[in-house]
Amino acid sequence: MTADSPLLSEPPALEILRRVYGHEAFRGQQAAIIDHVVSGGDALVLMPTGGGKSVCYQIPAMLRDGVGIVVSPLIALMQDQVAALQQMGVAADVLNSSQTLDDMRAVEAQLRKGTLQLLYVAPERLLTPRFLELLHTLKVSLFAIDEAHCVSQWGHDFRPEYIQLSVLHQQFPNVPRIALTATADKETQAEIRTRLALDDAEIYLNSFDRPNIRYRVVERTDAKRQLLAILERDHVGSAGIVYCQSRKKVDETAAWLRDRKINALPYHAGMDADARRKNQQRFLREESVVMVATVAFGMGIDKPDVRFVAHLDLPSTIEAYYQETGRAGRDGAPADAWLAFGLSDVVLLRRRIEESELSDARKIVSRRKLDALLGFCEATSCRRMALLAYLGEQSQPCGNCDICLDPGESWDASIAAQKMLSVCWRTGQRFGVGHLIDVLRGDATEKVTRFGHAQLPVFGIGRDIDANAWKSLARQLVSLGYLVVQSDQFNTLAVSETARPILKGEEKLNLRRATVNMGSGKKARRNGTSEATTAAALARADVAPDLWDALRARRRDLAAAQNLPPYVIFHDATLLEIAHRMPATLADFLAIPGIGERKMKRYGADFLEVLAAYR
Ligand code: ADP
Ligand code: ZN
Known about the structure:
The protein is α/β, with parallel strands linked by helices and about 625 residues long. The chain is globular and about 90 Å long. The chain binds adenosine-5'-diphosphate and zinc ion.
């Protein structure tokens, strides 16, 4: 169908997608899901963050008679979603505990009049006898259960009230229900099905790939400076999240970045609730806040224009990494996932498992998960393939990760590995990496002399390789399990049984050279395309910076006047298109992705005015 064919001849769902949302076509399984729910079927939708879950229940609610009830666990989130719908001219509202009694009464009056298309409610409100009674007097088009993994008792986001949502099926057997989640794993799927009585629901399992996220893993040399270099090069004015392991590191990193003119704020569970809420609000409402946080910051971060997620420490598992990085680029525009790690992470995580109170069986699982994560970090082929393979998906090299972009050379590290393993062995497996490197490099330090290691035949056999490269090799040997960290307080290393074939020269060890050299910000990668991944930077590439700033300023003013976050007016990608296409008439705005009729009427003139100065 061409863009200028008469709207009336389109299927009704597509017509709404174009007219209300301003999107040209459905993505993936959206159309199938919508058809199924419109015709009254139940559905379980598994789709990654940013995949486009919302239209899967919003459009059916508009097409079916009555009001669609959306259950969502987070009040802050509901408010913004409802604001976004209202901006598009959809009759949507919200009922939650943060409202005044008058507000609630007004919403209930609308419900009784039958004028609402969508109502967002918190589960605890939905489940009150009074509200359920009210619902029985109304025409309900569907129930949408967002963040459905909250029924899972084993997940991080467990909400006891979610379990009771099965009453919806008992009390409203003829109303279709659609449950949605971005959690991939099989156990959670099964739990959602049984707990929500969705045994007969159609399952829509989408790929968990997030193609717009560029994955990069670097060796940590000076994490803060490496991060700063990236922020200054690729992310001027971007919103992003920086994850650290400890509260102390969060505070230090945020302060350090602020000293360097980055708009950074801290967030961790040790701060008082008020300060936390304030920082979260600023992150949502302002355009370029860098949130430095522990993993306490996460669930419900629905901000679509997060341009990067950086990890200064290793995440706990691949699943956690996938979830945390998934908060970037919900709007589909390019985003960065950047992880810096070093030997000390590996040592710390290995020790944490060994010294934990876990049962032996659980320790085995934990070790396996850590190995999988390290395998991802030390990967010599496409990172996305490794990530998706872990989530059970087959894929091809992606072209959008550090390794696809710059495969580097692999080098035969067998001899170097033999040297390091020998030094570890000959010095009695009683020393940490620093001392081993001193012996390798032939540094007669006080400690080397004291232990008589300068007399060993291995003393100085590794002068050809610099200390940093040795450190990097040690990390890889530990990651790969050839060197093991002993459970003592000195992080001493020992040679593992599996290293025998390498020591004997029976097995070759190929490693990626790039991991040794990468990371210090200054040393650009060889194919190093300038990674202008922020929408802002993209805009600057061929849009006059002052035009971009003027468009952003207008959006900011329009948003502030309504006390809304700017992205509710237009996403960055939409603003960027406005800058590129320079629409000359109101009608031209309709051709821009993300602008439907209502926003064209409401904001077109405002932006025409801004553009006028730049023609
Ligand atoms: P999710 O809830 O799955 O994280 P959303 O429903 O918020 O994702 O959608 C993510 C982004 O994708 C939004 O910016 C939305 O406007 C956009 N989007 C959704 N469906 C389409 C589509 N068919 N075409 C273009 N953009 C879409
Ligand atoms: Zn790749």
